[in-house]
Amino acid sequence: MCAYLKNTITASAFGKDFLWGVAMAAQQNEGAWNVDGRGPSIWDVFARRQGKIKEGGKPTHACDFYYRYKDDLLLTKALGFSVFRFSISWSRVLPEGMGRTNKEGLAFYHKVIDECIQLGLTPYITLYHWDLPQALEKEGGWTNHNIIKWFARFVTVCAEEYGDKVKNWIVMNEPAGFTSLGYMLGKHAPGKTGLANFLPAIHHTVMATAEGGRVLRALVPNAHIGTTFSCSEIIPFTDTEEDKQAAKRVDILANRLFIEPALGRGYPRDDFKFMEKLEMHNHAWKYTERMHFNFDFIGLQNYFPVVVKYNALMPIIQASEVKAVTRKVPHTAMGWEINADSFYRIIKRFWLYGNVKEIFITESGAAFKDKLQNGVVNDAERINYHQQYLQALLKAKHEGMNVKGYFAWTLMDNFEWAEGYKTRFGLIHVDFNTQLRTIKNSGYWFRDFLQHS
Ligand code: BGC
């Protein structure tokens, strides 16, 4: 049962300046995929392919945020949050990814930003949350070197358009996620596989992230610039040398690959053939300087630790995961282990890089099999989850790690990528037939919790 249901922490313990927010992303929430001049994204196209999304879910309408943003922002405010993190759909503002801008698309984000400001919500803009314009994918997407230039133009358009109103910017959302799932494993859009796609996609993403930071710095006075990384503690299944080495390899890909070049260290140079290939393919040694950007903050997004064992049959990585279900440990509806101690340890690990100035938890949340009954969603497990994770975060803060904010993933149930609509992460329940919103008990829990922030 839920050991933490009794409130064990208070928001005020995090201090007056600590920021409490919700996070969401354009493709997962907006819908309105083909209105007012928006161009298609890779997800619009990918979702039409047979068998790619569970139960054939499509992001065409999602939560209809495009038309309901006022209500949804009001709900965010009503739950007591003070930060709203959202992303800009690249193909809504630049329908072909480059070239001409779309006035109506640009106007939409002005309306969202203005509404936030009016309600007293601080907007945090994510520039890239996985929805590449399909027009650019036709040119090779993240595998094409020109994407650095295309991305810089997108950032320029957004910075010039919104930079006087918005000071908080997140360049990239979880690069390890979209490059591996979309360009190696084929499970996410655009559905590409193999090293020939993965190696250039990694490098161009690293380069574009730093470039995006530089564009923002040049164009937005007093900007507070960050970028997010997914992170997972990687734990060897046994004490054997083979399992330990397997964990080391997975750790490079899961945790080190993107942050180390951003911090100016270049790619991890450990004894791992994959890294040699990455360097060689991209002549990466030439770019150490350009891969570096002095971010004001990093966003960490931790959903689970990963236990791995040596597996000779797995190409390149020679490791496989021992799932939480197999290990019979507490896990979410995604099968992701719930482990707040591991959350604490991974934050500490990133903090110990030394030149990280501020950390934000830019996403934290969990999916459970929520049931709406008589207008109530009693999601005690989600409340318990947030309580445990916040407790761990507080410990990190007390030990001097400069953690400045916690953004719940996510405001409302939405299009959960390849999982479609069945997997619910929201603090607010959405009926996707009627678009009716129902605040879950976890939403009310946050409201009560934040009253004392
Ligand atoms: C992504 C979100 C996603 C969440 C849960 C994160 O990796 O940034 O878009 O919905 O995980 O899967």
Automatic annotation (TrEMBL):
Classification lineage: Bacteria, Pseudomonadati, Bacteroidota, Chitinophagia, Chitinophagales
Enzyme class: hydrolase
Keywords: Carbohydrate metabolism, Cellulose degradation, Glycosidase, Hydrolase, Polysaccharide degradation
Single Gene Ontology BP annotation: cellulose catabolic process
Species this protein is from: Limnovirga soli
GO molecular function, one term: beta-glucosidase activity
Protein name as catalogued: Beta-glucosidase
Catalytic activity: Hydrolysis of terminal, non-reducing beta-D-glucosyl residues with release of beta-D-glucose
Superkingdom of source: Bacteria
